[in-house]
Amino acid sequence: MKIDYIIESEKTWDSIAKSFDKTRRKPWQECLDFIKDISQESFVVDVACGNGRHIIPCAKKCKNVIGLDISRKMLEIIKEKIIKENISNVCLIHSIAEDIPLKDNTIDAVLFIAALHNIYGKENRIKSLKEIKRIIKNDSKAIISVWSRYTYKFRKSFQNKNLRNKKIECGDKHIYWRKDSLDIPRFYHLYGKKEFVEDLEVAGFRNIKVKGVKIKSEKYNDNYFAVVTK
Prior knowledge:
Blueprint: H1 3-23, H2 29-36, E1 43-47, H3 55-61, E2 64-69, H4 72-84, E3 90-94, E4 107-112, H5 122-135, E5 136-147, H6 155-159, E6 172-177, E7 184-189, H7 193-202, E8 206-213, E9 223-229
Parallel strand pairs: 1-2, 1-4, 2-3, 4-5
Antiparallel strand pairs: 5-9, 6-7, 8-9
């Protein structure tokens, strides 16, 4: 794993944290449905939790929640939110998804939402998936989502082989954050459904159920959500 990439990634998300928070307030319904089915006695981890939009509903339902993120600024934003909501069952950890500082077989459920695609390198992405499998208990579930490379905005650059950069992995792309006068590139590996399923299988998950979802796109699925079992 390239340490310089991790440092760069942390700086990127720290830089856009406040601006990002303004645009990511509403929890996704797919996550709310997953949380609804979790037992009230559960110990849940939100890996790469961002600004915490799924931590709050999770904490209100479950016994204990851990929010883990590479960005200290994001964690500071969450801390302010849980204080405002008078929530006391959330623990925040500054860490990367590829090396989760939790014991094996101790977690009842995991959310890993819109973050796997921000990890550089296939080996590192699979490592993060294996970390999730490692920390959850046998027969426990995780919900994982990624951006699709075939959404209207990106599909042409990946469908036409002549337009592809042969020096980088198909699906790799820098997408700029251009809000609040910022102009900051973020690394993405945009997934095809087949590749997403294959990575989940390599990580050792079973009962893999993947569906495409239109969140901002009207014509093409722009996200894939997977619910998997250890």
